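seq:
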Amino acid sequence: MAGSPVEEQLSAALGEAALDVLDEAMASDAFEKAVLVTDRDDIAARVPHGVEIDRDRGPFHFGQRLAAVIRAHQIERPLYVGAGAVPLLRGSDLAAIAGHLRQEQDIVISNNYFSADMVAFTPGSVVDKIDLPETDNFLPRLLHDQAGLESRPLPRSPETQFNLDSPADLAILKVAGGGGSNLAAFVGGLDLRTEPYERLSKLLVDAKAEVLLAGRVGSQVWPYLESATACRFRVYSEERGMRAAGRDTSGEARSLLAFHLREVGSERFFAEFAELADAACIDTRPLLAHLGIKASREDRFLSDLGRPDGIEDAFLREFTQAANDAPIPVLLGGHSLISGGLMLLNEAAWREEDKRVLEQS
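struct:
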């Protein structure tokens, strides 16, 4: 991930998160070995003692590379973690997953069955029985459907659902805290626009407030919000599993909000949101896929950060500016924003609320 300052910023964060996962895993004594698959010399030079480096300068195909590593190291119980995935998990969490793999057979454990970033399974040899996927998202379903492994998704929580998919996730960490020492130090040195996230965080613990969520909102996120927040929610859930099913690239993605946005334009779109809620969190990827917006990754990241001036795509630049000008705080991002990111902001909000109550008592 490179090519622009905003992409390189996230790339650097992914490297720090990968180092944290390796530190936690090796310190847990639950793993026989750790292998870092990377093309980055700077990160390879900083790995903990005992970590093996696997480099391949050729074209990258996730499934083929994963299978090659499993075969080369004869791994019977692999636990795969993508860089930037589950950065809040600690060594004890990883050790618990390893324990399940030691005690049981023919299972696959993932942080999200429909769109995974972390997958553990046994036996490792079943990679020879499945259609090897280009990305990690679809791996648990293939292991279940084609190799017959029993699926054991992890409980939905900030620790299992928060991922670094966009620089907006770094802004969330800046507000809420969390992550290992390498990532925390990196995020602490960033100059990020955090005011909208801080405003949203306060609304989550306000019983009079209403927050609008739109995008790939998972069904298991909803019970968490119902039980763990004080505010009311207005939810528009669309295109879950869009990327894993390839609907974002095939042109099949459809969004009710995108139909409305196309009819009324960005300015009125957000003005109407202000009549419905006190804040809005929007996973923009279904909207962009429906509208056929082929914005670059740099443009999408700049939009997530609320920085329209650097966006080349005319529609996304206008849309982002309208979000900034809305009468309510509008947070733009990817899937992590409306799942683990929102959960993390909520936990941070309750910590602040508890602190405020204690100071008043």
